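Feature request disguised as a bug report, sorry. It would help if multi-protein outputs had a clear separator. Right now it looks like this:
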Amino acid sequence: MEGSDKLLGVIMAGGRGTRLMPLTVNRPKPMVPVLGRPVIDYVKDAMVAAGLTEIIVTTGYQGEQLVSHVDSWTVQSRVNQEDTPMGTAGSVGLLLDQLNDTFVVGSGDSVASFDIADLLMSHRQSGAKVTMALWEVEDPTEFGIVGLSKDHMGDVNSDLSEGYIAKFKEKPTAEEAFSNLVNAGLYIIEPEVMRLIPKGEKYDFSKQLFPEVLSRGWPMYAKTVKGIWFDVGHPFELHKAQMALIANRDTLPFPMPAGEVLPDGSFISSTASVSGHISKSIVMEGASVNGAVVNSVVMSNSRINGVSESSIVGQNSIIDSRIFNCVIGDNSKISIDLENDRR
């Protein structure tokens, strides 16, 4: 790897985003906007900042939107469309003949402050076949957890924030959790690892490939990310992620849209029109609020004449009533009160 002046990044963008419905009816999950930019741009920016010179995006569902978007990037990039879902590792494995050196893989639906250059340094120093970014959570039961050791093939030490991977566990119970460090969906991989994937099979990084690497005794390393990390696989993570981006805007390496930040952390785009009440919410470009918006995200060009509380409102929609804990898709008009609904 060292001495190579060409570093490849692969962004996995094949997810259907079923948990994000109806926001993903008309767009693939990586194209869901976060502060006015498709979420895939956040991992792309991290790759470019680390000096990656080429990016390949693997996709399936509604891939034509991604092709158009990726064409607008300034870094050399292209989309590889899979005909049938191949799993996370299987989709990257389709690129096997192009994976001739150390490469970086990232998830196209996470917002995170990845320092990929730092991870690459740890990867080289550790001699690992795979290096994984980790994130610390309070409740690890919804995630795949990772146990670390100071030494390769050593015992798990729950106090470590970086080290050699000693153990994996998918979605443990509270009693089974030996760690609160979870897989953050960014990996540095040596090409020989990808040759372990059975040809033509649907294959997963977390559940199949990485446990196989570990069982062979190949060294795997991991390091905890600082800053922010969100998997925007759930609609309400969109609110948390955007509020965190605004709160940490002075320390994060991401471009921020023009607008006003209110004392409570709300953000109002410079092109939005607000005459109503805003609390702990994100109001994006071209949107208008004549009613009230609380703990919500109002995407571009939508109008809130009623009340949106703890809800996500897609683009070009109109809310004339009260909605609570709802997810409203694009181009919708809501005139009746709704609670715990998606439409």
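(second protein starts here, but nothing in the output says so)
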Amino acid sequence: MTRGTALYDRRPLEERHADPMPTLDDRWTRPLMAVLSHLALLLVWYLFVRFGDVPKFVMPSPVDTAATLFGPRAGGYNWWTNAAVTATEIFGGYVFALVVGVLLALAFTWSKPLEALMMPLLVSLNMIPKVALGPLIIVWFKYGVFPNSIMAFSIAVFPILLTTARGLREIEPELLDLVRSLKGSRWQLFTKIQLPGALPYIFAGMKVGAILAVAGAVVGEFLGSDKGLGYLMLQVQVTLDTPAMFMAVLLITLLGMLLYGIVLVLERWLVPKDARVG
């Protein structure tokens, strides 16, 4: 508030000088509501199965689902080995997509002819259904963690590229010209001006990419894999082991939430609240 507007502020003096820091309730309301919503979903799930007389092979209860992870048969599923494989595919493909997406966006910002040449091609490649691309990736790279990471990369890189390119274009041209006039290198221009200014847009793309990377890795395991949570789901589907299928879905969801949570923590750390996008 400026001095002029303060003259017309009719609030009491103690209110005008009150510290607008968030209260403890404000700080914890959203996380608490998130926890309560998940607990409510578990309760509805349990009550629906318990009183709806739903067969176990159609929809198991949360208790039956948890028994596959902690019960005597848990060792037969190799949960932690398969979860580690899927996590490697998700995080590996996601990090690769982040690096490639940011570098391509930076290259397009530096060279308009390169952007005009490559961007239409990348858009066309992105239109290819990833399910149709999966068999080709298997032919080229065979089975394993790497081809599934490539699948996660292919589906997550484009939103990161688009949002990063937009963020780099939003930098004020006058500021860039000032740095160039001071003989700043391209690396200094990127690290000191472009990257900090584009961070809100980069994180917006990272959040979308985190969701898509999970889907890409699991689709890759469905199409061809010998390990991972997606592979395990196909194996237990044959025997109608629905509780194990539900547990695999829950573990995949937890991996996605972990990745998304890491992105949110980094965003809160690096980007001011007022500058965040989405």
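Even a blank line would do. Unrelated, but nice: DSSP finds twelve helices and no strands in the chain.
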